[in-house]
Specification:
The chain is mainly α. The chain has one domain: Rho GTPase activation protein (Phosphatidylinositol 3-kinase, Chain A, Orthogonal Bundle), CATH 1.10.555. 75% of the residues lie in helices and 0% in strands. It has 10 helices and no strands. Helix 4 packs across helix 9 and helix 8 packs across helix 9. The protein is globular. About 13% of the residues have low confidence.
Length: 138
């Protein structure tokens, strides 16, 4: 596939949006201790076979967050979905975004002996929040 000059300009614009200080500041302003969603609690819901039940559990957890944290998480997820829309240019599909942001937004309550399993669960949770965004925040 040959990219035109307009594709290149769009890619540069997307890069500039992602790298803005505003985005960085909004993530830093997020109180991670109060938005913390325990991996052990939420990973129990990952095993649910019924997707509707899983979405309802995720919605309950998100709704239990303080309003500022809930809205900040919503804005962050919405932004990440916008980034994923341009995955043809930036290669940041939802699973890749989950890999990058999973460890940032979630961490185990106690030190774990199986870090790989924790990372996998973090990624699955963030991926589920992104994939089911419309159903969770309806």
């Amino acid at each position: 596939m040959i990219y035109s000059k307009s594709h290149f300009k769009l890619a540069v614009r997307i890069h500039n949006i992602i790298c803005t200080d505003c985005f960085t500041l909004s993530i830093k302003a997020l109180s991670f201790t109060s938005i913390y969603i325990g991996i052990t609690i939420i990973s129990l819901f990952l095993d649910l076979q019924n997707n509707k039940e899983k979405v309802n559990k995720f919605r309950e957890i998100v709704d239990s967050l303080a309003k500022p944290n809930r809205y900040t998480l919503q804005a962050l997820l919405k932004h990440l979905l916008k980034v994923a829309e341009y995955s043809e240019f930036n290669r940041m599909q939802i699973p890749n975004l989950a890999i990058v942001f999973g460890p940032t937004l979630m961490w185990p309550a106690t030190e774990s002996t199986n870090m790989a399993l924790d990372l996998m669960k973090q990624n699955l949770v963030i991926e589920a929040l992104l994939v089911e965004y419309d159903n969770i925040y309806r």
